[in-house]
Design a protein that fits this description.
eight-stranded mixed β-sheet; alpha/beta; 8 helices; 8 strands
């Protein structure tokens, strides 16, 4: 579905956070880890990759502690507890053991092993019948991105981040695949007017944070990123779930 400048589309999604917003779009960068380095290791390289994973896990846990404190101060202590679950996943010994086992048995690099293990965890959670537990699946994806961010020295950003015209979300509606805590907290949200995502339930941590921040949000619009781009104008209604492109 492609829209010309003169066309309008009205779509119905899932209301996540109440309120109205009319603004241009900023696209969240979903694919910063789409070109992960994948290579075979040998000899002492095995211990080196395991050490990289250990260090990345420790740094990710530290950053989550900082984020928890920041959210507690800025939003509230209850919302800050969201990040306790992610920290528990990061520091779970089983996760480290599984990643280490994959590196040792298949001689793969740290990034490859971390992504493989956490992708499998997230996929299994997405298949459960309970909606609340399905919404928790995104925590595994978040943890994966946080560890990979450390390994690759990256951070969450917007697609047009390096371009002169980028407003970095200021007075914009941010569009993403999923409404996650990274989207609602890690980018500067002080001046973001709204969120639209393709997936993410009302019990998701991103939705909880959006409501706490008072930012309108709508989800449940599959393939929405294929019909919008940076600079297009949207109207979103976080009370009804309606989105007008």
């Amino acid at each position: 579905m492609n829209l010309s400048a003169q066309q309008e589309a009205r779509l119905k999604g899932l209301p996540l956070s109440p309120g109205l917003a009319v603004a241009k779009v900023c696209m969240f960068s979903e694919r910063r880890h789409s070109n992960l380095p994948v290579y075979k290791i040998q000899g002492s390289g095995v211990d080196l990759e395991i050490a990289r994973v250990k260090q990345a896990i420790e740094m990710a846990a530290k950053r989550l502690d900082e984020l928890r404190n920041q959210v507690a101060w800025k939003i509230g202590k209850a919302e800050a507890e969201i990040f306790v679950a992610q920290r528990m996943i990061v520091e779970d010994k089983t996760l480290f053991d599984k990643v280490t086992e994959l590196i040792k048995d298949h001689f793969v690099n740290a990034e490859n092993a971390v992504a493989s293990i956490l992708d499998s965890y997230e996929a299994r959670m997405q298949e459960v019948d309970d909606e609340y537990l399905r919404d928790r699946a995104s925590d595994f994806g978040e943890v994966k991105r946080r560890i990979l961010d450390v390994l690759s020295d990256m951070k969450p950003s917007l697609q047009c981040n390096e371009q002169e015209h980028c407003q970095r979300g200021k007075n914009r509606i941010v569009v993403a695949e999923e409404l996650t805590p990274s989207l609602t907290v890690d980018i500067e949200t002080d001046h973001v007017l709204g969120f639209v995502s393709e997936r993410g339930g009302q019990n998701s941590h991103g939705a909880i944070l959006a409501r706490a921040l008072g930012i309108p949000a709508v989800s449940g619009l599959p393939e929405f990123r294929q019909i919008v781009g940076c600079g297009m104008e949207l109207l979103i209604n976080g009370d009804t779930g309606e989105v007008v492109v």
